[in-house]
Predict the structure.
Amino acid sequence: MPWLLLEEKVLSSIEIGSNESFVGQSLHRRGGSEETQLIMSTKLVHTFRRVESEDFIFLDESFKILEIKTLTPSRIKFSPLRTKSIVKTNEGNALRWDVQVDDILEIRL
């Protein structure tokens, strides 16, 4: 299972998907568990048909954080121009993980 890391600190397990797997899917908390997904090459994110807010972390090609945004239900956000991938996670995780713009994340198997 892949892991999301910041400076050798494990933040979360992560599911890796494509733009096609992202469309129409939502994160569901199963028994309060954390759900985190890495979405490759998408130009926008949305929270239509969602009940809860979600955190989105926009990354460049080196996994450097370009922007962090929490979207409430029924919202849409276009990715910053240099975005190559996006981490989608439960609301509040970005704050709890203490990630900031310009931090570099890592995916490790």
DSSP finds two helices and ten strands in the chain. The two ends are 6 Å apart (CA to CA). Residues 20-24, 26-31 have pLDDT under 50 and may be disordered. The beta strands are 3-6, 9-13, 15-17, 36-40, 44-46, 54-59, 65-71, 76-78, 85-90, 105-108.
